[in-house]
Every structure is written in C-alpha cells, then in structure tokens.
Design brief:
The N and C termini lie far apart (75 Å). The chain is globular. Helices cover 28% and strands 26% of the residues. It contains seven helices and 16 strands. It is α/β, with parallel strands linked by helices. The chain has a six-stranded mixed beta sheet with strand order 1-16-2-3-4-5. A six-stranded mixed beta sheet has the order 6-7-8-9-15-14, covered by helices on one side. A two-stranded antiparallel ribbon has the order 10-11. The chain has two domains: 31 residues; 254 residues, Metallo-dependent phosphatases (Purple Acid Phosphatase, chain A, domain 2), CATH 3.60.21.
C-alpha cells in the first residue's frame, strides 16, 4: 500500500472515530448513574431529606441493583419515594422489584406511588401488586395518604397515578372519578405539609396546577427527560405529551406548591441517549 493511501485511510479512520466516539459515549450515559440535588423551599420547621427513584422500567444497576442501592445509602435520606413505572406493565418476574424495595426499606421508610405501568399491571394480573410491595416493607399510596411526624414536621404523604384534578383523562368511569375527588378533597384538607407522589407531571409543570391546587410538594417522573436528549435542542419525546416536550426536569414553583420532576432511571421503548439515569435528592428547607 502506498504512503498516500495509508495517509488517506488514517484520516478516514480518525474522522469515523471522531463521529462514533461521542455517540458511543452518549449511549453509554444511559448506564451511568447520576445524582441531582435540589433544595426545595416549603413550609418545614426542620429539613427533610428525600431520595426519589422513578421510572426504573426493570433496569438493573449492578447485580440486584446493588449500585443503585449503594448510591441511595450515601445520601442518608429521611424518606425514599418511588414514583411509579418501576416495572413494565408486562413484567412476569417481580423479584427484582421486591429486592429493591426490601433493601431500600433498610435505609429509610419507603413510600411507593403507582405509575401507569403499575396501574395496568394491577388490572391485568390476578395478584395484588400493592400487597406484594407492602409485604416487602413499603407503604403503597394509590388514591390514598398517610399522616406522620418527621424531623419535627407534621406531614401528609399521598399518592395518585393519574392526571391530578382531571381524572376523566384516564377514565370516563364515574366511580373512578368520584374516588379521586374524595381522595383529593380529603388529602388537601389539612394544615400538614402535603407531599404528593404523582407519577404524571403534566398538570403540575405544563398546566400550571401548582397555582391551583393546595399541594405543597409534588414528586413526578414519567417524561424520562425526553428520552433522547438532542444536543442544543433538548429532549425529543415524552410519553403522553409527544415530541419536543417543553418541561422535562427540574423544580417548578407555583403560588401554592412546587413540583420536583425527575428524568428517572430508565425507559420502556425510546432509548435514553445523552440522558443519564437520575436519582433525585430533594432537601426540603424552610421558605421563611
């Protein structure tokens, strides 16, 4: 081979590597756990540290999610929130989920809110998913809430997997809608700090419901950070929303409450690209 051909091949190889390496790196980010920390101002007397896990979609980080569990331990949370789609709707083997819940409960109290996948699973299989999760030590909140004291704060934690304030968007069933309205009226009727596990963020970050409903802090997921994060353009697609969603992560304040939106840990169909899996650490601090 002539010297000239060798130089041309060398240049072509360098160009190909220059193109492929960034893409390989960006796809690789889908397996690299990251932690984002938010300071959230709300009506607390003493700080509350919450770790939020969302949208795992059966993904594993280390054997039996050992890497994920170890990362959660590092942050010494007062509470752990799992905000839905931790499994896929057609999951047959729940051992991975059960192990994660059991190990997480050894770190801090775990509160589990359903996502659309858990809701479909619950309606598709004869087993009671809520009971399975609660037998592992967590508290499942679906159209339900609990009251507790944490770090000198009186707290109410609730969970709802649908479109808060607009239950008809998921079902025209009158009984389903009435159950939501009963939950909503009862949940908001308190002076306690109200924390809501609401898998679908749309009402809170896109419809301005943080200015409408009396909920102090909402923890959501579902959007997967847009799935494919196009450099300089943002997230490509979010479930139920479509292409180029405007609000895909962060903290969104309103006059009545604030929404913490996680990009989550995995995805079902659209691969994550330039979009690392995310653990959220929310530090609730006094707004005074």
């Amino acid at each position: 081979m002539s010297k000239k051909k060798k130089i041309v091949l060398l240049i072509l190889s360098a160009v190909i590597l220059a193109i492929l390496c960034p893409f390989s790196y960006m796809f690789g980010l889908a397996k690299k756990l990251t932690t984002v920390e938010y300071t959230v101002k709300t009506k607390v007397n003493q700080e509350i540290h919450i770790v939020q896990l969302s949208d795992l979609h059966n993904l594993q980080f280390g054997e039996n999610n050992s890497e994920l569990i170890d990362e959660v331990k590092k942050h010494h949370p007062d509470l752990i929130f799992m905000t839905g789609d931790m499994i896929n709707k057609d999951t047959q083997d729940l051992n991975q989920l059960k192990n994660l819940v059991i190990e997480s409960c050894r770190i801090a109290p775990v509160y589990f809110g359903f996502g659309n996948h858990e809701r479909v699973w619950q309606n598709s299989y004869s087993s009671d998913l809520s009971q399975i999760i609660e037998e592992c030590g967590a508290t499942v909140l679906e159209n339900d809430y609990v009251d507790l004291e944490i770090n000198g704060n009186s707290v109410r934690i609730g969970g709802y997997s649908g479109y808060y304030g607009t239950p008809h968007m998921l079902s025209d069933d009158a009984d389903y809608q009435e159950k939501f309205w009963q939950f909503q009226r009862s949940f908001e009727d308190t002076d306690r700090l109200k924390l809501l596990l609401a898998h679908i963020p749309t009402p809170w970050v896109d419809w301005d419901y943080t200015n409408k409903y009396d909920v102090d802090v909402i923890f959501s997921g579902h959007y997967h950070g847009g799935g494919i994060n196009v450099p300089f353009a943002g997230g490509l697609y979010a479930p139920y929303v479509g292409y180029w969603p405007e609000n895909i992560e962060g903290v969104f304040y309103g006059s009545k409450g604030v929404c913490v939106l996680s990009t989550g840990l995995g995805s079902e169909h659209v691969p994550r690209f330039n979009n690392p899996p995310q653990i959220v650490v929310a530090r609730l601090v006094s707004d005074e």
